[in-house]
Amino acid sequence: MSIFQNEFSWSPSRQRMFESCKRQYYFNYYGSWGGWEQDADAQAQLLYRLKKMTTMPQLIGTVVHEAIRQVLKALQMGRGVSPSAVETYAQNLFDQHLRDSEQQRWRRTPSRYTNLFEHYYGESFSAADQMQAVNRIATSLQTFFASDAYAMLQSVLPEHYLSIEELADFALGKTKIWVVLDVAIRYGKSVFVFDWKTGRERPSDRHQLAVYALYATSQWGIALSDLHLRDVYLQTNTASSVHLSPDDLAQTRTFVAESIEKMRALLDDPDQNTASQDAFPMTTHTHLCTTCPFKAACYPHTTPTPREEPIQLSLF
Ligand code: SF4
Asked: Measuring from each residue's beta carbon to the nearest atom of ligand 1, which residues come in under 6 Å?
């Protein structure tokens, strides 16, 4: 029995998963709950392990975000950074994640060590693929260092940094809304929020920034006209600014409230936040299953997985 309470909350990533596949959403937020406990049932332990899995594109994003976070923390402390040293740091970090996954260190602590989808499911991952991933990381960081955003961030006083990749929350009605702003700064009377993207542009990117606007206007009391939201696409070296009107902000509030209602409608008991798997159907868009971490749970007889060994789970 977990000592933690599974409280209902909302985030942009949760909404995307709910719309993508209800079963995946159930596995991620309910079925895997408590799976870190040594006395959890085998299904919860399996789902927790699968929930913690990462795909190669996600790993590239994680490494790039972590490297940029370190750069911004250094700037905030008034220290200069060497782009080549940051690139080396990112490459070493990527290599460490790969080693952890190859050595299956996640078997003991799934929350701490990388379990790469491509390793777990025995998908081919050649030296050329690895080199391509390393190049994508290097390209992303080079784009970052050459960006207008970086030039602006370098010119900001340390005390004008408002947030660097901090998990934060605000309330909408009775629901806690989670956000992670890659970086937010004060710049004159304005606030700038930047979101780094290592993948392709998606329509949901704009929604995500709109939710960040709800947080920024409530947290920092900033007028909407003084808030500047920008996605920076590090692979394509493009940036996309989002300008929101008060109507857009109201629509975002409605969008989140309706999304919360849809999620709660499938629960057994919305007040206790309890759920049953049968209420969350598998997607009919089966092409999504090929890259889904939970395919070992949905298709156990057709999905190759690593040989099972006794494991001792720990949360930290
Ligand atoms: S394998 Fe397919 S049906 Fe199962 S959780 Fe993943 S996306 Fe949904």
From this structure: 21, 23-24, 27, 282-283, 288-289, 292, 294-295, 298
User: Which of 295, 299, 303 best tests ligand 1's pocket when mutated (most atoms within 8 Å of CB)?
Assistant: 295
CB 230 within 8 A of CB 195: yes
Closest CA to 235 of 152, 116, 131, 138: 138
> Which residue's CA is the nearest one to ligand 1's atom 3?
282
Atom in ligand 1 nearest the alpha carbon of residue 298: 4
| Closest C-alpha residue for ligand 1 atom 5 | 24
What pLDDT, on the 0 to 100 scale, is given for residue 123? 86
CA-angle at 190, arms to 189 and 191, nearest 5°:
135
Delineate the domains of the chain, giving CATH numbers in brackets: 31-146+293-316 (no CATH), 150-265 (3.40.1350)
Give residue 32 CA to ligand 1 midpoint distance, Å: 14
For residue 113, the SS3 value is coil
Residues in the chain predicted with pLDDT less than 50, given as ranges, are: 310-316
Q: What is the pLDDT of residue 125?
A: 81
Name residue 10's beta-bridge partners: 177
Any idea what the Cα angle at residue 165 is, between residues 253 and 144, rounded to 5°? 110
* CA 185 to the chain's CA centroid: 21
